[in-house]
Amino acid sequence: xxxxxxxxxxxxxxxxxxxxxxxxxxxxxxxxxxxxxxxxxxxxxxxxxxxxxxxxxxxxxxxxxxxxxxxxxxxxxxxxxxxxxxxxxxxxxxxxxxxxxxxxxxxxxxxxxxxxxxxxxxxxxxxxxxxxxxxxxxxxxxxxxxxxxxxxxxxxxxxxxxxxxxxxxxxxxxxxxxxxxxxxxxxxxxxxxxxxxxxxxxxxxxxxxxxxxxxxxxxxxxxxxx
Length: 226
Description:
- The chain is mainly β.
- The protein has helices at residues 2-18, 204-213; strands at residues 31-42, 50-52, 54-63, 69-82, 98-115, 118-139, 144-167, 170-185, 188-202.
- An 8-stranded antiparallel barrel has the order 1-3-4-5-6-7-8-9.
- A hairpin with a 4-residue loop joins strand 6 (118-139) and strand 7 (144-167).
- The termini are far apart.
- Mean pLDDT is 82; it is low at 8-24 and 210-221.
């Protein structure tokens, strides 16, 4: 799966660079908000520890001077069913059928191709976040078992491809991505395929208002004169 996604990403980049392209009127001086719902699917040995659950993402599509290129800061909140394989010396028992969560902020750059109201895109970039693993803490005196979360910082890389279609006032989008963490969980590599479906909305006017409030000259949309 990793090789397939990388191949698709490279083919898309080549197509976007060499194909003829018209003026992108949908993204020129625009900022869009994307909110997605979907799942993170563990790949390879990661499936021995994690199983998919419903997850979410939110991000900004910020057009650069050439609207064919964009900046894509995004937060992914991925949830999984969790099965502990390795005993933790700080806790007396291992845990099964619990939940683990992966929170990562990705700062990616991307390239896109506008085909009338349909847009195809690809992106890649680094990520930073943390992973929570559940543990069982036992109070033998009071006969109480309590679940605690062990948090670890995580450095990762994220790449993906997607498409969205413009309707009146909003876009409906589908995004498929690959996330690799440079950390491990239960001594197991972390490789996840993300599939997100969501809506993309134009928030350029809100960005103009924020710039005006903080006293910066100009605007994102270009409607305010310097």
